[in-house]
Amino acid sequence: MPPNSKNDSNDRSVSLAMVGSGGAGVMTSGSMLLEAATKAGLYGLMTRTVGPQIRGGEAAALLRLGNKPVHCVDDIFDIIVAVDWKGAERFAAEVPLGQSSLIITDPAAGDIPEILLASGARVVELPIEALASAIEDGRPNMVILGFVAALIGLSEKPIHKIITKKLAKKGKAAATTSWQAVQAGYLAAKDVTSPVKVSFAEGDNKGRWLISGNQAAGFGALRGGIRFVAAYPITPATEILEWLSPNLPKMGGTLVQAEDELASINMIIGASFGGKPSLTATSGPGLSLMMEGIGLAVASETPVVVVNVMRGGPSTGIPTKSEQTDLNIAVYGLHGDAPHIVTAATSVEDCIFTAQWSVHLAEAMQTAVIMQSDQFMGQASAVIDPPANISFIAQRLVEPAPAENYRRYAVTGSGVSPMTLPGTPLGQYTADGLEHNPKGLPSTLMEDHRDQMDKRDRKIAEFNYGDHWADVEGEKDSTLVIITWGSTTNAVREGIERLKDQGINVRLVAMRLLSPAVPAQFDSALEGAKRILVVEQSHSGQFLKLLRANYDMPGEVRSFRRAGPLIIRPGEIVDRIKNWRVQ
Length: 583
Prior knowledge:
7-stranded mixed beta sheet, 18 helices
């Protein structure tokens, strides 16, 4: 159950939800508020929750704003305001309220769901529709924007700038009308006591970026050297393609919308065979269709990157909600012994680094890399500080002038063999899914199969992944350790910060490299651990089972796991650790 008041150590932020059925414009007003808050010097995070129909139906923009970096949702929401309550009860569990929370409702918007009223939150009525109707072409979502901005202490200036910028293409009249509606919201908020405000420093944004996880993944891929992309749209990965479509050509690259996922994976294998670092983006159902193609990339030692933005499963599952249940298929989904790499971003910002690193790994080892993201990270918009410009880019071992007896799959010490590009004199070779000898000719000999399997395994197992395999944080002498991955990382990280404020030190191991295993680094990170909590968003404990299959974990190990769509919150981490310590 959520607490009834905000955590004292976390009162620097405000959490709010804007609710309305599809087409009510709550996503637009939420995005405008986030951007205006950014210009006023705040950090922020906006996630969205919608129904399974993707378009139409219930919808909510969920925001958290603060004067320090914000990476996850809080335990409770301070403010929830609704254009209407149609279907809102379906995601009420995603918007927990407490007794200090504020529910803003229009008497004409329908009944507030009982599950929200049961929290004991204060209810304030606001005639949203009437205020909007009093303005020619007035929009309720703009009234809400002004009302909420006033409640949290945001001045009108940054809101006016955003409206002018966003609505310029629609003409002066549209911007004027929207601004009048916003002002009506500001005026209506004067007599309402807000449960929380944050301090603003207008103009103190220092060049911060407002970016989504999917955009960040696309940017990181470009930084890493990706120059060809083929993909088929799928929720929640489509925004990667939408961002790359105009930006990839600026770097001399090409994007193709393929007819399906089978075509996508085969197209990028072909482009990579031709010398272009290549990528596709998909989600669970699409990843399933790509498995045979990924195996072809492994067997032919053709570097490719597959960004998998996970959603609830199985089958079509819950396309609009987050879950970490594509772990098994990413690690084990290929048939045969097919060593490949699985990476995972830990935050919106980390999508940049992990995508760039994934391209580097694929090119350096001439293999397939599956990079895991998820709906929460991919479709969340976050205000981040400008990321460091990491220097590594795609560096493939290419043979520019092969000898007459060129051996594409020569057995080397590193396991990586120089490859030629099409058209290189004397460099022709066969690259297909059949087992082969060092020259690339199909072979059924046990020696060739053994040598090539050893080669493909060795180059991945013995590669130097450095410190990038995981984020290891906290006091080295702490006997309490939390191991996690993906978008749960930042809820865990904030929970650990709160525990530290209470005098409880906990180490964090947030894994970025899920496969292959790196036992030496893992053992070092867990040295001295007596209690280990494994945190993940899955029903069956896929991450825990992966760890047990590949590593020795000292001391007592417990699992905190939950399937989507409910995300794990910082307060839950605090409670789990504190309850464990007193037992």
